[in-house]
Amino acid sequence: MSTAVRSAPTIQEVQPSRRSQIVACAAASLFILGYFVSSVGALTSPITGAWFVGTQKPRRGLLWMIVFAFVPGLIFGWRKIPLTGALQALEYLGWALVAAVLGTLPFTFHRLVSPRLPGFLSTFPLPLAAVAIPLLALALHIGAASTAGLFTFLIFWFAATVVWLWNNESRVTDLVFGAGFIVAGSFALLRHFAGVALPANLPIVVAFSWVCLGGALLLSIWALFHPLKTSTWAGRPQTVALLQSPFTRSPLHVVSEEGSEALISTTGEHFPIRNGIPVFLKPGDLTGDNGKYNRLYETIGGFYDDTQRLFGAFRGVKLDSYFENYMGLLDVKPGDSVLETSVGTGLNFKYLPRGTKLAGLDLSLEMLANCQNNMRRWKMEADLYLGNAESLPFADASFDVVFTCGGFNFFSDRAKAVREMIRVVKPGGRLMIEDETEEYVKSTYEKIPYTSSFFGDRNQPVTVPIDLVPPEMENIRVEMLKNGQFYAITFSKPAV
Ligand SMILES: C[S@@+](CC[C@H](N)C(=O)[O-])C[C@H]1O[C@@H](n2cnc3c(N)ncnc32)[C@H](O)[C@@H]1O
């Protein structure tokens, strides 16, 4: 055995960037200001809404947004509630709820339709619906809705564009934030203070609203005929040949049943495939630490990537350089087959060479759904599995490289997870275990209000799990990363 525990980093430490911190603070201040200054809020709220709804499943997003629109309205406008009688008060509340629902619907429309539209076209559902829905409400005599015009269209289009650029990690996001806020802000200010808004009943305003309604309908029809595609498992025989039941180790084959696919083992076990993801979980997999942290990831799955980016920005850390650093330790070559257990949203895959055959397994369906979105966005392909890193659904010696990042510390049975990683990697294959150190968990997760409830009552402190790597493994190395906040253990399985 050759072990090298390194205290000094052998890879380049990433230097913090002041510029990134300043941009992040300026953007955050603007969004906070939006809650207090209505002309700024007119711009920032649609951006927040378009971003938020994209991080949620459609129904959950709709419900949360109604709550966000309805409750603050009541808190700030409680004086307007007629106190003349219970019936009037109820009527007022009813209309306030209708207004909240109408205000939320364009975002839900955007959430449903835009993922199915290519490129920049995906920025149109929000502004079109923001104009079309008030028109429909007016036509249906719902409340005191009035037609929205060009200003509404521009502000919502701007919001959808900012979120689109953010989601696509566009380098021009900074520019758009700067230039776009000035342009759209001027519109909002003009409208607010100079009363430049055109009268809602002007024929041209009404005609524009009808055009938007037509546009929204056309996009809906397009989306209906262009569902999100997931490739079939019957078309992946080489991948299926490597699969086995994680419980009985029996080989699996694909069957078609009522329009969907499933995997069946030779001993009769049945594993459904949901939205292109085979499900290998049994109830016991979500107990202990696995169950506890699973609740966390099911809740934050939609925000996970954004929180990473925002955290990075506020700390001035260039995430790309950091990811490249530790992924470089694996020395993956194009053509290698790579498995990440606890793949999450697939952030690490972006830093592997194109032409790598990717597979990812995770305990959280929400994280995997976001991983699928990322793969589409980055034009990459990966076989994804819902399962437990402690019982992998793969035959022995299936992959050239196997690694786990960011999840390992809190697996229920870490020793079993390491044994499984070693079992499924080929002889001579490379492995890596990367995660936070105790110092990072204490200084960060325990300090954040929501995550502290998960990380505060840990049974024991995090230790670098070098003792779990069997002595017969080769080239065992430990790197301390980010000034000791993270560790990475790399090693190889002996070639036979
Ligand atoms: C912090 S995230 C890391 C995601 C990704 N690897 C990254 O580096 O961005 C931790 C992930 O580990 C997953 N996870 C936790 N316990 C697991 C287990 N026993 N089996 C598989 N995945 C697990 C969680 O669902 C979550 O997606």
Features:
about 500 residues, alpha/beta, disordered N terminus, eight-stranded mixed sheet, binds S-adenosylmethionine, 12 strands
Short recap of the structure:
This protein has 496 residues and is an alpha/beta fold. It is 48% helix and 15% strand.
Share of helix among residues? 40-55%
What class, by secondary structure content? Answer: alpha/beta
CA(first)-CA(last) distance: 15 Å
- List ligands, each type once: S-adenosylmethionine
DSSP strand count: 12
Rounded to an integer in angstroms, the radius of gyration calculated over CA atoms is 26 Å
Which term fits the overall shape?
globular
Mean pLDDT: 86
Tell me the strand order in the biggest sheet.
1-11-12-10-9-6-7-8
Poorly predicted parts:
1-9
The H-and-E topology, N to C, reads as EHHHHHHHHHEEEEHHHEEHEEHEHHEE
Strand coverage percent: 5-15%
Largest sheet: 8 strands, mixed
Question: Helical segment tally?
Answer: 16
